[in-house]
Design goal:
single chain; alpha/beta; Rossmann fold; 21% strand
Length: 206
Amino acid sequence: MHNESSATLKRRIRVEVRRARGALSPREVQRKSQAMARFVARTGVFHRAERVAFYIAANGEMDPRYLVDRARQLGKRCYLPVIDTMLGGRLAFAPYEPHTPMLPNQFGIPEPDVPRAFWVPPRRLDVIFAPLVAFTPEGTRLGMGGGFYDRTLAHRRHSTLWRRPKVFGLAMELQQREWLPVEPWDVAIDGVATEAGFYPAMECFR
């Protein structure tokens, strides 16, 4: 019963947040995304990172393209997620440059069209910036429901010694909730960045 109630609540939150995001104009999304990028680009964790994964924004998500631009200016290696069907739907990360050819995956989201030999696992990255549907001020993340990031980052639940990668969600303030249901398979992230600042606190981005 608890699981059914939790699943129902998650579905309702996803509908509410997507509706709220959908009410924003492209200009508002751009403004919020640029503000978020300015905050993150000044942090120590961003400047220290050499290999950084981003995502292609869809359905009104916070757009990391401005952070990608800054990362490239600083000489960082940029990556995008690709769904690895040979690993049970986990994510691998493919190198990304402005000229990289792209192909849509089964969800219509573009992925780098590069040979599998160039893909890297998450542990080879320094930072992953991940999309989310909702979050709490403590940094709890509610994803899209496919479980891709939870499966990919499951090692974070099984080891107290992991150091890489750091994982931060990117979101808008309107996606914040006071509380979210947490399942045993949910993987904690290190923090969330919005157009207004950082959660749970700036310290997580130092």
